[in-house]
Each structure stands twice: as structure tokens, then as C-alpha cells.
Amino acid sequence: MQLRDFFSQDCIKLDLEAEDKDEALKELVSLLDLDEKSEGILFKMLKRRENLGSTGIGRGIAIPHCRSLVVNRLRVAFGRKDGGIEFKAIDEQPVENLFLIVAPPLEVSNQYLPVLGKIAQFSKEPDVPERLAELEEPSEFMDLLEEKGV
Amino acid sequence: MHPQLELLLEMQDLRSQKQALKEQADEREVESDVFEVEIEEALEELDRKLEELEDRLDPSVQSTYRRVSRSMDRAVVPVLNGVCYGCFIAVPRSWASEAAENEEVRTCENCGRFLYYVD
Ligand SMILES: [Zn+2]
Predict the structure, then answer these.
(1) pLDDT confidence of residue B81
(2) Assembly ipTM
(3) Which of A57, B24, B38, B72 has the most Cβ atoms closer than 10 angstroms to its Cβ?
(4) Is A91 among the catalytic positions?
(5) What integer best gives the mean pLDDT of chain A?
(6) pLDDT score, position B73
């Protein structure tokens, strides 16, 4: 399983407009191109997950995630906000890079945790925050995943 | 989408989250190790939220929900290709078009679970 197989260029946004955490979650959800009701339900569920503990894992990276009936397969998105937003991250630093992961509750292929694990592993590489900051095109994000072998 | 069905979907998502934290060791481990979630506190919070949403269900929907959720792990299931994904029995064909937009709250005639139509 390769992380890059789950990303498509239209689910990558390098210039998020969001100014706060809620707006960022909404903007990420909008990249998945669901209907309005589903977007609303997903946003609420992601917020509820954040209430259990921030998904900001430090070094400017957050991985908001949840399971929801409104998707029928695993979906991912990536967003970058230059300058960062307040996210109540573990290290209390603003978050610039956000990886969204959503899976249906019944996911036969069982990719949710492996994908979550791979993104967490990728995020821990020393040069990744810096490399993500340098991206100019969504295609370069895909190239970076490939270069890192994830 | 029917507002009560929307509520039921939110509740089922919370139930999935709760079940994963409770019963799936690998998911619990990721949440606690990578994201530093306090599992016991999280489970309590999910229960509180579920109770709050349950209070917002209409009486008839609420009694069905209580009955179904007592006896089954999932109270709301998707309908995919005309099949209830709770019991894997086909739902009446005539429903599919009417309920395509999930404008009504329906339950499976076979297993009793609430149905959510997925494209
Ligand atoms: Zn059924």
C-alpha cells in the first residue's frame, strides 16, 4: 500500500484561506467534493474528534481524522496554510500542514489505520516540514511522497 | 436529508468512534500514542455526546433507536446497491427511488436497523 495512491491533485490545496481551526477543517472537507449535508456531518464529526484531543501532532503538522457513514471509501486530502493557524497542537505551535483522513465505519480493505500510520511516519521525517513549505504545485506534493517512498 | 436521519448518522458515527476506541486495540494504540488521547476520558465524552443527541430524537424514532441499539452493534447502516448492509438482505426495490435523497426515516423490514442510502 502506497500513500500516494490515495491522493489526487484536486484534493491538495497549497493556499488554504482558513484563518482558524474550524475554517481549516471545513476547507479540507470541501476538497472531498461531497454534498452539503454530508460535508456538514463530516465537519461536526471531525470537530468532535478534535474535542477528544487535538490531532496537531507537533512540528506544524495536524492529521484530522474520523470514520463516517457519509463516505463510502477511504478519502484523504492535504492542505497548507502559510503562517499557520492555532490548532491546540501537542507542542502548542501553529499548524501549517494538514492531512485529512476519513474512512467509512465498515472498511473491508482495512486501510484506515495503515494510512494514518504512514502519514504520521512521513510527518516525523526531519526535513518534511521544510520540504512541504517549499512546495509550489500539487504535483510536487505527489513527487515528495514518492521520493520518501510512502 | 431528513433532519432526524441526519441526527441518526451523527450518532452512528459517534458509536463507530466509541466502538473503535473500546474494542480495537490497534486503533486505541494509535489514538493514545500518536495523538495522546486519554482513552477513558474520550469514551466518557462520547457517551455524553450520544446521550445529548439521543434526547433530540423524535419520540417514535427514539424508541426504535433504543430498541435497535440495545440488541445490535450498529443502529444505522448504509444501503448499497439495494442491499441493507446490516443484514445483507435486499430492501424493497420501490423504496430506492423514493428514498434516494434520504428524505424519509426508514428501517429495514428484516433487521430493523435505520437505513442510509449511499450513492
Ligand atoms: Zn437489514
Answers:
(1) 86
(2) 0.90
(3) A57
(4) no
(5) 94
(6) 86
Average pLDDT over residues B84-89: 94
For A105, which of B6, B16, B119 is closest by C-beta distance? Answer: B16
User: Does B10 contact A41 at a Cβ distance shorter than 8 Å?
Assistant: yes
**How far apart are the CA of B87 and the centre of ligand 1, in A?**
4
| Range of the structural domain that residue B28 is part of | 3-117
Catalytic residue among A13, A21, A65, A81: A65
Percentage of chain A modeled with pLDDT above 70 = 99
Strands A75-85 and B83-84, by their bridges, are unpaired
Q: For B90-111, how does the pLDDT look when each residue is reduced to its tens digit (9 = 90+)?
A: 988 776 565 566 888 999 999 9
Report the separation in Å between the CA atom of B86 and the middle of ligand 1, taken as the mean of its atom positions.
Answer: 5
Superfamily of structural domain A3-148: Mannitol-specific EII; Chain A (3.40.930.10)
- Residues from chain B that touch A69, judged by Cβ atoms under 8 A, are 9, 12-13, 16, 76, 78, 116, 118
pLDDT in tens, B70-83: 999 899 999 988 89
Domain count within chain B: 1
Q: Are B115 and B107 in contact (CB under 8 A)?
A: yes
CATH number for the domain that contains residue B25? 1.10.287.1490
Put simply, the answer to whether B26 touches A57 (Cβ < 8 Å) is: no
